[in-house]
Amino acid sequence: MTVLSACGGESRPTDRESLVVPGELLSSAAARQRGSELFARHCALCHGERADGQGVRRNLSARAVDFTDPYWRDSVTPRDVYLVIRDGKRGTPMPAWRILTPEQTWDLTAFVLGVSADPP
Q1: Residue 82 contacts by C-beta under 8 Å, 6 or more apart in sequence?
Q2: What is the distance between the alpha carbons of residues 3 and 99, in angstroms, rounded to a whole number?
Q3: Thinking of the domain 31-115, which architecture would CATH place it in?
Q4: pTM for the predicted model, two decimal places
């Protein structure tokens, strides 16, 4: 079963409306810490160590999202972020991270949504 999950073979909701947002997890300091560790391992190369979009793509036309930008934070929902992490973003270099479990994806969502709320 683990192999199927790691390869994206596990059944997951595809309809954005059926995806249940775990509000308690998004506000959890523990979830944000786990998300921070996942971010450092999987996302910082492109999005920058401080999640500010200053990774390896900073000087290219298809720049990585700056998660510290409050405007970005106000323009997305937790569901949007989860689905982009899980499925990638068509037409951009953002890959699908289907190797992450749903809980890990929510942890990462909690982290990136919290970055713009943190004081500099």
Answers
A1: 19, 21, 105, 106, 109
A2: 10
A3: Orthogonal Bundle (1.10)
A4: 0.80
